[in-house]
Automatic annotation (TrEMBL):
Its cofactor is Mg(2+). It comes from the Eukaryota. Binds 1 Mg(2+) ion per subunit. The keyword Hydrolase applies. InterPro entries: HAD-like_sf (IPR036412), HAD-SF_hydro_IG_5-nucl (IPR008380), HAD_sf (IPR023214), Pur_nucleotidase (IPR016695). PANTHER family: 5'-NUCLEOTIDASE DOMAIN-CONTAINING, 5'-NUCLEOTIDASE DOMAIN-CONTAINING PROTEIN 4. It holds the Pfam family 5_nucleotid. This is 5'-nucleotidase, cytosolic II, like 1. The lineage of its organism: Eukaryota, Metazoa, Chordata, Craniata, Vertebrata. It comes from Lates calcarifer (Barramundi). GO terms for biological process: GMP metabolic process. GMP binds at residue 46. The keyword Metal-binding applies.
């Protein structure tokens, strides 16, 4: 017997999956941009063209820096810790004075605070930060963990604080730990973690492990070759990566599975971004047969590989201006902020975590809708009160409910919550994304879904005193690519 309800529910599920697919394929817009005006596309490699598989890649990086810490004298008990992908998120701030991990908004207001794996409540936070606020400009004390490479060191630092806090051999002090005559500050621990991270990069151990098992650690998407081929038909294309040529050659050969240099007019390795966007370094030509370096002379030759240089040299070699370039990268500081502020390049930020963010949002958006309803309800309570009113409404229950909803939303993303928000408040990472990235998406492959004369229109941003326009668009319009 035909069941209308069963068929209706089946169609609703199909429709929901279709809408989710459309959303995941979107490129999102902060500032309007016409692709027809772009004469040159630039790409970073790591976490942009080469997407590393999470959490396997971060787990491998964690093991390498953990083992390095033990080899320089840290307790062997640290080897018991394994990487937990549910804990760290990008954009956290390490307080090197008190050893806390902080999630803050654009103004430095503290949204979440943990000491090791112990999350602090409001009173505990005020003991450290009386105003629940930090001076982000104090870069000697506060270190922002903005890159995906930072995920493993973020978790390792939390492991260190957790271990020394729990270990009876060490005395807990305000700014570190005491063991006999040895005082170990949070700042020195942080520096050791940073040095260990630099060590596995500089010695090539991270790259060696990656190369030995490319299938485990690197995503190979056949659509990448399609995208680069189509872009090459309408514009110039360059690759600018901090990686050396040996590693770049292995990774790029694995990705499109064909002669990868043919996709690019120019390849630049060892760029040392963000220095690349300022004075840069000496430009040298790479001998792709011997992997040695030569001296750069003359005009650009197609497919030539260079080492070093600067963004100004890129423009000169390709014959383009800053406003003609759309640069695609994953590093909010090294790729996006510096190319935007110093060179005026158009910017596209790759945010791989966006896939999870969007999926969780679709599943839990009812919680956010309830938060908005509570906000309206609060406004109604106070609507008829003014400075002469003596009435004091009891909003304790509403405040408690808001806290519960915010916590439930945050825990849907992981222990540190969403990359982009805490409840209805935006994180520091979200504010930087909106300020410096013209476009952003979970992957650069999503550019395939747009024609190269497409006009990306940013939604109008109104100041608070202007009422938003009524939401009359249909559900189909709200998730279309025209955003």
């Amino acid at each position: 017997m035909y069941s209308y309800t069963r068929e209706h529910n089946r169609l609703l599920k199909i429709h929901h999956r279709s809408l989710c697919f459309l959303i995941l394929c979107r490129v999102f817009v902060n500032r309007s941009l016409t692709l027809e005006n772009i004469k040159c596309y630039g790409f970073d490699m790591d976490y942009t063209l080469a997407i590393y598989k999470s959490p396997d890649y971060e787990s491998m990086g964690f093991e390498l820096i953990r083992d390095r810490m033990v080899s320089i004298g840290y307790p062997h008990e640290l080897l018991r810790y394994t990487y937990d992908p549910t804990f760290p998120t990008r954009g956290l701030v390490i307080d090197t004075t008190y050893g806390n991990l902080l999630k803050v908004d654009s103004n430095g207001n503290i949204l979440v605070c943990s000491h090791g794996f112990r999350f602090l409540n409001g009173d505990d936070i005020q003991n450290y930060y009386p105003n629940k606020f930090i001076q982000r400009d104090d870069t000697d004390r506060f270190y922002i963990l903005n890159t995906l490479f930072n995920m493993s060191e973020t978790y390792l630092y939390a492991c260190l604080v957790d271990f020394f806090t729990r270990c009876s051999r060490y005395t807990n002090l305000l700014k570190g730990y005491q063991h006999g005559d040895l005082f170990m500050s949070y700042r020195s621990m942080f520096q050791d973690v940073r040095d260990a991270m630099d060590f596995i990069h500089d010695t090539g151990s991270l790259k060696e492990r990656t190369i030995k098992n490319l299938e485990k650690y690197v995503v190979s998407d056949p659509n990448l070759a399609v995208l680069l081929t189509r872009i090459k038909e309408v514009a110039k294309v360059f690759l600018a990566t901090n990686s050396d040529y040996t590693y770049t050659e292995v990774i790029m050969k694995y990705l499109p599975k064909r002669s990868w240099r043919s996709f690019f007019d120019l390849v630049v390795v060892d760029t040392r971004k963000p220095l690349f966007f300022a004075d840069g370094t000496v430009l040298r030509q790479v001998d792709t047969e011997s992997f040695g370096f030569g001296t750069y002379t003359g005009d650009l030759q197609h497919g030539t590989v260079y080492s070093g240089g600067s963004s100004d040299i890129i423009c000169d070699l390709l014959g383009v201006k800053g406003k003609d370039i759309l640069y695609v990268g994953d590093h909010i500081f090294g790729d996006i902020l510096k190319s935007k502020k110093r060179q005026g390049w158009k910017t596209f930020l790759v945010v791989p975590e966006l896939t999870k963010e969007l999926n969780v949002w679709e599943e839990k958006k009812n919680l956010f809708e309830e938060l908005k309803r509570l906000d309206i309800f609060l406004a109604e309570i106070y609507k008829h009160l003014d400075s002469g009113s003596r009435e004091c409404p009891d909003i304790t229950a509403i405040q408690t409910r808001i806290k519960v909803l915010t916590y439930r939303m945050d825990m849907s993303y992981g222990q540190m919550g969403s990359l982009l928000r805490s409840g209805s408040r935006q994180t520091l990472f979200a504010s930087q994304l909106m300020r410096y990235a013209d476009l952003y998406s979970s992957t650069c492959i999503n550019l395939l879904h747009y024609p190269f004369n497409y006009l990306f229109m940013a939604p109008p941003v109104l100041v608070s005193h202007l009422p938003p326009r009524s939401n009359t668009c249909t559900e189909k319009e709200s998730v279309s690519f025209h955003s």
